[in-house]
What we know:
Number of helices: 0
Structural class: mainly beta
Shape: globular
Order of helices and strands: EEEEEEEEEEE
Strand content: over 45%
Number of strands: 11
Radius of gyration: 15 Å
Largest sheet: 11 strands, antiparallel
Low-confidence stretches: none
Mean pLDDT: 95
Helix content: under 10%
Amino acid sequence: MNEIIELHDSEVKAIRQQGGNLILVLGAVIHSSEGRPGSDAGRTFTQEAELIIEDARVLSKPKSQPLWILSGQLTVGEEAFEDVPLPFDRSGDVRVQLSGVEGVLSAAGRRVRLTLTGVRRHLEDFPSQDETL
């Protein structure tokens, strides 16, 4: 099964700093499919997750929490992600920018990893994007 976390429509529930690490506690929206998640037929779920940025520098924080993500991007080196594949653990020049009505969360670091926590809850089944055209 192939899975991604869709940054938009997820939420940042909490922002914590632990040592030099920034931990973003997410209410993540997960797309799961035998093919291409988010494009091919599959299922969506919600599950809590932690996005951990090592050696982090916080560049900006939202005015309030939770931050409902309307748009977001995670960049590692030259590779940019709006949908984060699972599992995810990358090193390099890390940049995270998440925007919502509550403001912008922006951070940088040297490594990023995503860990699923909590209980997975089914949201809905979805058809192939080709079938909806």
